[in-house]
């Protein structure tokens, strides 16, 4: 049988390339048997990540440092660069992201998903501690100017991507400091402000100009920004809290979760009293409940608090936990109750945060809805509620709550916090950009609005997680780049997602996850200290080795070792994913290499 080399087949036009390949593919001429092909596939972690971070790339770069004879610290530095190519805020998102990537991780079908969230946090913190800086992608400025409205995750992401491409970027922020909901909507016990400040400053160091305290539509018009810039990106967020729509909610001590968290995170002292009721089941509601618990306890006399600690310690000396936050709170007369109209299963907040809230002493009344706010002299004193039961599914797919007749009851309260949703708050000619439903509408492919040269993304399009906003900011920046250069968008290449069923999970040794450490339960409500710690360097390196490199060669050598005809060789000087290669003049198409490949990278290519 006569076999052709790759060059022969390319020149003769007889070579066919399989879809989504990252390697040269060679098949024999005139026969139907198959040869190995190297097909780079999309790992499910990246597929599930809203900001499309190269998770496999940065994890394997750490894990394979010794294999490629790289210094470990230098490898982690490079992992930071790989990660921040898509997301310039890894230390932030390693703390707050609900990690949909881990839900896709193939390792969950073996011994638990890779701790991607913990790794992102480690790599982000590593970059801060090492003083790593972003680099521009071009040497010369383009001379193009772009205005970014809003400095939340989407605005910062867009500004980062535009600035590194040589454009002059100015961010207009309505609040006194940058960060948007990252600063004003997320409590410090989840996201310390020094971490946020460090990563924002790194973006600004690319030459991004920041103007805080400027409300577009009031202090400067959108039309003026359009006239002074080549493009505008709207990422103003959704900071206006939704109303309950029940009688009495206009009382002085009724807050939206957005406004309450904004005031607390701004450093204002907000006296909510000892009996706080929060309505809602999302992240803002949980954050508001846990924040109000901390502010209520902080208002107590320190001597009283210490006495209560000692009293509880005398009763509970089991050693499991020195103290119990819930019991301390109860003995001090502090109580926080969440009202949610569905069950725990339907609650949209991050599951871990719900659990921690309950551990801290927050009580959650499920299948309960507010009916009326009871007032006395202009202040809310109680809330009238009704029990609910789940009926037929609504448009979101969740079962609609239905009131149970005769189940009304009343809860006393010192303050009421409403966290049932948020919407964009626009002023002046910024309102013209809104659709009838109160949100901004864009072309999902280009992120462009109905107004030429104006793009939008993030929570102005609809509420979502922060990583989605980051992804939309990057997507918009690329679209703006195309718009400024008057070029057509690149054709997207859809890669196949590799699933665990096409891998050999038995090849990978069982290895437990490296979990973050958390502070003791009794300390959690002591102010706003961060609740979890970053993985150590040793833990992070160990966790990186749990990545199975789904869909990309990890140089395990299985194919080379088991090839009976010695047709496969390796060259570590070649880039990752191209280290192994096949001599097709020796290959007989026995399929053994594909059978032993654990990561699903090798396939048997089609014959002619």
Profile the largest sheet.
5 strands, parallel
At CATH level 3, the topology of the largest domain is FAD/NAD(P)-binding domain
The overall strand count is 20
Measured between the Cα atoms of the first and last residue, the distance is 14 Å
CATH architecture heading of the largest domain:
3-Layer(bba) Sandwich
Radius of gyration: 28 Å
- Compute the number of helices: 20
Q: Please name the fourth-level CATH homologous superfamily of the largest domain.
A: FAD/NAD(P)-binding domain
Oligomer: single chain
Would you state the CATH class of the largest domain?
Alpha Beta
Shape category: globular
Mean pLDDT: 89
What does this structure look like?
With about 600 residues, the chain is of the alpha/beta class. The protein folds into four domains: about 1-40 and about 550-608, Alpha-Beta Plaits; about 45-130 and about 505-545, Fumarate Reductase Iron-sulfur Protein, Chain B, domain 2; about 145-240 and about 425-485, FAD/NAD(P)-binding domain, CATH 3.50.50.60; about 240-420, 3-Layer(bba) Sandwich (FAD/NAD(P)-binding domain), CATH 3.50.50. Helices cover about 30% and strands about 15% of the residues. It is built from 20 helices and 20 strands. The strands form six sheets. A five-stranded parallel sheet has the order 4-3-2-5-17, with helices on both faces. A five-stranded parallel sheet has the order 7-15-8-9-10. Helix 8 runs parallel beside helix 17 (about 465-485) and helix 13 packs parallel to helix 16 (about 350-360). The model is unreliable at about 1-30 and about 310-325 (pLDDT under 50).
């Amino acid at each position: 049988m006569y076999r052709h080399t790759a060059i022969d087949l390319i020149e003769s036009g007889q070579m066919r390339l399989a879809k989504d390949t990252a390697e040269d593919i060679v098949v024999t001429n005139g026969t139907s048997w198959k040869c190995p092909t190297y097909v780079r596939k999309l790992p499910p972690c990246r597929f599930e990540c809203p900001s499309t971070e190269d998770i496999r790339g940065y994890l394997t770069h750490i894990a394979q440092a010794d294999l490629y004879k790289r210094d470990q610290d230098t490898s982690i530095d490079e992992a930071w660069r790989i990660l921040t190519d898509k997301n310039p805020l890894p230390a932030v998102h390693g703390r707050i992201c609900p990690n949909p990537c881990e839900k896709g991780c193939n390792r969950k079908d073996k011994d638990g998903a890779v701790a991607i969230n913990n790794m992102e946090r480690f790599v982000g913190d590593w970059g801060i501690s090492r003083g790593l800086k972003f680099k521009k992608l071009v040497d010369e400025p383009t001379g193009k100017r772009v205005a970014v409205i809003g400095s939340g995750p989407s605005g910062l992401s867009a500004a980062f991507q535009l600035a590194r491409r040589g454009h002059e970027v100015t961010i207009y922020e309505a609040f006194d400091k940058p960060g948007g909901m990252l600063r004003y909507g997320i409590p410090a016990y989840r996201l310390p402000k020094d971490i946020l400040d460090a990563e924002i400053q790194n973006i600004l160091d690319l030459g991004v100009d920041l103007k805080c305290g400027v409300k577009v539509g009031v202090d400067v018009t959108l039309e003026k920004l359009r006239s002074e810039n080549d493009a505008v990106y709207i990422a103003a967020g959704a900071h206006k809290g939704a109303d309950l729509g029940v009688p009495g909610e206009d009382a002085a001590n009724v807050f939206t979760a957005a406004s309450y968290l904004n005031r607390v995170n701004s450093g204002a002292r907000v006296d909510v009293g000892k009996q706080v009721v929060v309505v809602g089941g999302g992240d803002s509601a949980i954050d508001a409940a846990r924040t109000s618990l901390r502010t209520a306890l902080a208002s107590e006399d320190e001597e009283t608090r210490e006495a209560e600690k000692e009293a509880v310690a005398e009763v509970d000396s089991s050693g499991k936990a020195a103290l119990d936050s819930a019991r301390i709170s109860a003995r001090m007369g502090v109580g926080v109750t969440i009202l949610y109209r569905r069950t725990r299963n339907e609650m949209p907040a991050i599951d871990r945060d719900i659990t921690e809230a309950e551990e801290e002493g927050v009580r959650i009344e499920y299948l309960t809805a507010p009916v009326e706010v009871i007032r006395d002299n202009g202040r809310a004193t109680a809330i009238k509620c009704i029990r609910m039961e789940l009926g037929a599914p609504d448009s979101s797919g969740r079962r609609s709550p239905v009131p149970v007749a005769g189940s009304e009851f009343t809860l006393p309260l010192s303050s009421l916090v409403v966290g049932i949703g948020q919407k964009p708050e626009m002023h002046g000619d910024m309102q013209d950009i809104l659709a009838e439903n109160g949100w901004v509408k864009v072309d999902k492919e280009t992120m462009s609005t109905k107004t030429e040269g104006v793009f939008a993304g993030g929570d102005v399009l609809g509420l979502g997680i922060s990583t989605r906003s980051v992804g939309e900011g990057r997507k918009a920046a690329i679209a703006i780049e195309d718009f400024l250069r008057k070029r057509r968008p690149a054709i997207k290449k859809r890669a196949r997602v590799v699933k665990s069923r096409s891998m050999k999970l038995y090849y990978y040794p069982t290895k437990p996850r490296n979990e973050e450490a958390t502070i003791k339960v009794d300390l959690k409500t002591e102010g706003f200290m961060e609740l979890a710690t970053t993985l150590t360097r040793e833990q992070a390196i160990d966790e990186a080795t749990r990545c199975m490199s789904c869909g990309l060669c990890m140089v395990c050598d299985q194919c080379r070792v088991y090839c009976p005809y010695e047709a496969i060789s390796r060259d570590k000087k070649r880039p990752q994913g191209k280290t192994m290669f096949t001599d097709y003049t020796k290959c007989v198409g026995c399929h053994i290499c594909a059978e032993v490949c654990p990561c699903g990278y090798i396939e048997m290519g089609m014959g002619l």
